[in-house]
Amino acid sequence: MIAKVAGVILAGGKSSRFGSNKALALHQGDALIQTITRRLAGLFPETLLITNTPEEYAFLGWPMAGDQYPDCGPLAGIHAALRAVSQPRIFVCGCDMPLVNRDLIRFLCELPGEHEVALPWLPEGPEPLYAVYSKKALPVIEENLAKKQCKIGLVYEKLLLRKVTVEEILRILPDLATFQNINHQHDLIRLATTGG
After folding, report:
1. Which residue range forms the structural domain that includes residue 124?
2. How many domains does the chain have?
3. How confident is the model over 78-94, as pLDDT tens digits?
4. Closest by CA position to 7, among listed 131, 122, 128, 126
């Protein structure tokens, strides 16, 4: 078990591109979010689901909390999680990332140093929803949300980051498939055909 880190799934998105609640879309007989909860099971001393519609996810049996800043996207979910958990740090992933990898999660959570965020820095940029956030980041996040500055990138400009490179990731995993997320129906079809 990874000490002093809570495992968090964000399930607050509108799924507008997908056309229905993608967290509940079926993949190999289970809802996507069930696949993720199974992958996180046993890794953390504490888990939390961030959602504003808890009735939809009661079947998971996870503790839940909602956003305090509505309509502010993933940053509000990260904020809500940091406020709700008792652990000093959280690992956050989206409800549409069924290929999250336990070895990479452990690597991200156990990186040494005083950073406030540890996250993969891919060729297309940072991956904010496969990352570790410290409670030390809360004041900056709250300040931005209070000003309705909801873009996560604006927060990164003010925080101490540990950027995890593609080279570091590929020492743990054979490829970057773990970052595949489901935004459209065709993403789900592709996931099924690639054996994810």
Report:
1. 5-193
2. 1
3. 999 999 999 999 999 99
4. 131
